[in-house]
Design a protein that fits this description.
- The protein is α/β, with parallel strands linked by helices and about 700 residues long.
- The protein contains 19 helices and 22 strands.
- β12 and β13 form a beta hairpin.
- α1 packs antiparallel against α3 and α1 packs parallel to α4.
- It is globular.
Length: about 700
C-alpha cells in the first residue's frame, strides 16, 4: 500500500472513530434533552449552526490535524495519527465498560490498552483497517439520527411568533406574575397551617393584602412542563418542548398586542424572539453551549469515581463550568436579565400597561444561599441523593439538605421583598394584578423521592404557594377553593375582561362553579400522572409542615433539633471539661477561608464542612460540636457511606457568629454520660484560622 493511500485511510479512521467516540454519544444524550438547547437559547437556524459545528466541523478539525501531520511525514505523521486513533478508540471502549464494578482508573487503563490494540491492528492488518474504515458512515449517521428522530429535532423548525388573539383588555392594569422554582408550600408553613411570618416575612406580608389559595397544586414535577402549563393554562402533553413553537397560545402572545413586556425567562422560551429578542450574540451562545456540552460528554465518558470532580449536571441545563453559584444565579449565559436587574429595571410604561414576568431560579438547588442573600458555601451537590433522585434513609443526612433548602427559601423571600418594594415605589403595586406561585415543589423525606410524586410525598411536590392580589385589593383572605397552576392564565384573562380564546384546561379562580374534586400532576415526561383529592393535599401538607417544625422549630432553620443542639448551642467550650482524642482524625474543608472573613460580604463561609477518619476501629455516627471563637455554634453528626472508617460532617452557623478577619474554628466529639456532657478535642482552637 502506497504512503498516500495509507494517509487517506488514516484520515478516514480518525473521522469514523471521532463519530463513534464523541459525535454519536453526545448527540444521543443532547437529543433526548431538548431543555438543554432551550436553556442555551438555540432554536431553529441557531441549532442548525450548532449541529454544523459540533458533529461536523469538530471531527474535520481532527482530520485536518492528521492531514497536516501526514504532510510533514516521518515520525510526526506516525505519532499524530497513532495517538488520535488510540485515544478515540479508547474513548469508544471506555463508554462501553464504564459501569463495570471496577475502579475507574482500572477501566481507563483497560480502555487505553484496547485503544493500543486497535492501533496495532490498524498498522498490521488490512482487515482491521478495512473494518474501521467501514465505520465512517457514522460521521453522517449521528447528526442524521438527531435531525430525524430525537426529541430535540422539534427545535430545528423555524421559530415563529404566533398571536392567537388581538382582543384589547377592558381593564387597563399591569400584571405581575412571579414563578419561583421548586418552592413547596410546606416550606413556607408553620405548625398551624399558616405562613411562617418569622422565617418568611415578605410572603406573609403579601398574603396580608392578597388571596392565598391554600390548596393550590402544580400540574407537573419538572420546570420544562410546569412553567409552560402556568403560561398557557393547559395540562402538559407528551413530546412538547418549552418553547413558543410548541405553545404559541400563551400569556405573552395573548397580551403582547396591548401590553409592554418585561420578561425574565431563563429556562423556557415561551416568549418568542419577536417579542423577547435575545441580546446575546450567537457566537457567545454557541461557545457557552459547547462548554456545557463538553461537561455533559465527560460525564457520559468517565466512570462515576473519575467524574466526581466534574461540575454537576443533574440539576441545571446550563452554566456547568460556572462554579460560583452566585454568579450563575445573577448572570445567565443566555443574555436574560438576572432577577435583581429585572427588579431594578421595573418602570411603568407611559402608553400601555405592562406584563411583568419572572421565573426566579430560587430556591432550586444548588443550596448555597442564606436568607440575607449571601452565599454560604461552594458545595453544590446534595449529599445523600442517589439513583432515581431518591434520598437515603439516614434522617440526619436528609435534614442537612433540608436545612440548606429552607435557608435558601429565605433568600427567595428576600427577593420577593425587593420586588414588592420596587412595585410600591413605582406606584404599580396597589393597582396591579400580582400573582406569586411556584412551578412545583420538592420533598425531603428519608428514603423517599425528591421530586417524583408518590403516595408518601405527593403533597410536598404538588402543593405550591399561590397568592393572587387583585387590583385595588388591600385585605388578605385565605381560600380553600381547590386550584391548579393552569388556572392562572384564565384568571388573568378574567380580571382583564378578555374574552376566552384558545384551548384552556384551567378555569378562572374568580368564576362561579362547583369546586374541583380532584387535582393531577404529570411526571415522567407527561407519560404518567398522579391524581388525588384536594382534601388529602391539605391534610398531608399540614402533616409535613409539623414534621418540619419538629426538626427545625419555627422561624429560620438555623439549628436542627438534633444532636443535643438545645443543650449545647450558645454555650462556651470553657464550660466543659475537654480531653484529647487520638482515635479520630478530623479535617476542615478549605480552612484557609476562616483566616479572613467578611461577614458583610457576598460570600460568608457559614456552612462548615469536613472529613473524619477513624485511626482506630470504625466510625459510629459520632456527634460533633462545632465551636467558633470559643462558643458552640452548631452540632453535627458523622455520616459514612461505604467505608466505616471514613466519613463526612457539616454544620451551618449564623453569619453573625463569624467575626471580621481571622476566626478560630474547633471541632469536638460529644458524649452524654450520666446526665453530663464530655468533650474530646478533634480540631483544637486556631486550626480553622491557622
Amino acid at each position: 500500500m502506497s504512503p498516500g493511500v495509507g494517509r487517506r485511510i488514516a484520515l478516514v479512521h480518525v473521522l469514523a472513530l471521532f463519530a463513534l467516540a464523541v459525535s454519536y454519544p453526545l448527540l444521543d444524550m443532547l437529543g433526548r434533552s431538548p431543555e438543554f438547547f432551550v436553556a442555551q437559547r438555540l432554536e431553529g437556524r441557531d441549532l442548525w449552526v450548532f449541529l454544523a459545528l459540533v458533529p461536523v466541523a469538530a471531527p474535520l478539525l481532527f482530520v485536518l490535524l492528521a492531514w497536516v501531520a501526514g504532510r510533514l511525514g516521518g515520525w510526526v505523521a506516525s505519532w499524530t495519527v497513532g495517538t488520535l486513533r488510540t485515544l478515540l478508540a479508547a474513548a469508544v471502549v471506555l463508554q462501553a465498560i464504564r459501569h463495570l464494578p471496577a475502579p475507574g482508573w482500572g477501566l481507563a487503563l483497560a480502555s487505553v490498552a484496547a485503544g493500543l490494540a486497535v492501533e496495532a491492528g490498524c498498522r498490521r492488518s488490512s482487515s482491521v483497517r478495512l473494518f474501521v474504515a467501514l465505520l465512517v458512515p457514522a460521521f453522517l449517521l449521528a447528526p442524521l439520527l438527531f435531525v430525524l428522530s430525537s426529541p430535540s429535532s422539534r427545535l430545528l423548525r423555524p421559530v415563529e411568533s404566533v398571536f392567537f388573539g388581538d382582543a384589547k383588555p377592558a381593564v387597563n392594569v399591569s400584571v405581575v406574575l412571579v414563578v419561583f422554582d421548586q418552592l413547596p408550600l410546606v416550606s413556607l408553613m408553620d405548625a398551624g397551617g399558616g405562613l411562617d411570618r418569622a422565617a418568611y416575612p415578605n410572603f406573609a406580608a403579601l398574603a396580608d393584602t392578597a388571596t392565598w389559595y391554600r390548596l393550590a397544586t402544580s400540574v407537573a414535577d419538572r420546570t420544562e412542563m410546569a412553567v409552560p402549563a402556568i403560561l398557557t393554562g393547559r395540562y402538559p402533553r407528551r413530546g412538547e418542548t418549552p418553547t413558543a413553537s410548541s405553545h404559541p397560545d400563551n400569556l405573552f402572545t395573548g397580551l403582547a398586542p396591548a401590553y409592554a413586556l418585561h420578561v425574565q425567562e431563563p429556562m423556557t422560551r415561551l416568549c418568542p424572539p419577536a417579542l423577547c429578542p435575545d441580546p446575546t450574540p450567537l457566537t457567545r451562545r454557541l461557545a457557552a453551549a459547547g462548554l456545557d456540552a463538553s461537561v455533559a460528554y465527560l460525564h457520559r465518558l468517565l466512570p462515576a469515581d473519575l467524574a466526581e470532580g466534574l461540575p454537576d449536571v443533574r440539576h441545571d441545563w446550563r452554566g456547568f463550568w460556572h462554579q460560583d453559584a452566585q454568579d450563575r444565579f445573577k448572570a445567565s449565559n443566555s443574555g436574560d436579565r438576572h432577577p435583581y436587574e429585572w427588579i431594578d429595571t421595573i418602570e411603568p410604561d407611559a402608553e400601555r400597561p405592562t406584563l411583568y414576568f419572572a421565573h426566579v431560579l430560587l430556591p432550586h438547588e444548588p443550596f448555597v444561599y442564606l436568607p440575607s442573600g449571601q452565599t454560604a458555601t461552594t458545595l453544590r451537590h446534595l449529599p445523600g441523593l442517589y439513583g432515581d433522585e431518591q434520598w437515603v434513609t439516614d434522617d440526619w443526612q436528609v435534614a442537612v439538605n433540608y436545612q440548606r433548602h429552607l435557608l435558601q427559601v429565605g433568600a427567595a423571600d428576600r427577593l420577593l421583598g425587593l420586588l414588592l418594594d420596587r412595585l410600591r415605589s413605582r406606584g404599580e403595586f396597589d393597582r396591579a394584578l400580582v400573582i406569586v406561585t411556584s412551578d412545583h415543589g420538592a420533598s425531603f423525606q428519608p428514603g423517599g423521592h425528591y421530586k417524583k410524586p408518590d403516595r408518601r410525598n405527593f403533597a410536598d411536590i404538588m402543593n405550591v404557594p399561590l397568592l393572587v392580589k387583585l387590583p385595588g385589593q388591600r385585605e388578605g383572605r385565605v381560600s380553600d377553593r381547590p386550584a391548579e397552576t393552569i388556572d392562572i392564565v384564565p384568571t388573568v384573562m378574567d380580571v382583564l375582561r378578555i374574552p376566552r380564546s384558545g384551548q384552556r384546561d384551567g378555569r378562572s379562580l374568580l368564576a362561579d362553579g362547583a369546586p374541583k374534586t380532584s387535582v393531577r400532576m404529570y411526571f415522567n415526561g407527561a407519560t404518567r400522572r398522579h391524581r388525588t383529592e384536594p382534601q388529602r393535599i391539605a391534610a398531608a401538607s399540614l402533616e409535613s409542615a409539623r414534621r418540619k417544625i419538629e426538626i427545625f422549630g419555627p422561624g429560620p432553620a438555623w439549628s436542627p433539633r438534633r444532636n443535643y443542639t438545645a443543650e449545647l448551642v450558645g454555650r462556651n467550650v470553657a464550660d466543659f471539661e475537654v480531653s484529647p482524642q487520638t482515635a479520630l482524625d478530623v479535617r476542615i474543608d478549605r480552612k484557609s477561608m476562616y483566616r479572613s472573613v467578611d461577614p458583610e460580604g457576598a460570600f460568608v463561609p457559614a456552612l462548615i464542612t469536613g472529613t473524619i477518619r477513624a485511626l482506630q476501629g470504625t466510625l459510629d455516627h459520632q456527634v460533633l460540636a462545632v465551636a467558633v471563637n470559643g462558643t458552640i455554634r452548631a452540632t453535627s453528626r458523622v455520616v459514612t457511606s461505604g467505608s466505616r472508617d471514613e466519613g463526612r460532617w457539616s454544620a451551618m452557623v449564623r453569619p453573625e457568629c463569624l467575626r471580621a478577619g481571622a476566626n478560630d474554628v474547633a471541632v469536638y466529639e460529644v458524649r452524654a454520660e450520666g446526665g453530663r456532657f464530655t468533650f474530646r478535642s478533634l480540631v483544637p482552637p486556631a486550626a480553622g484560622g491557622a
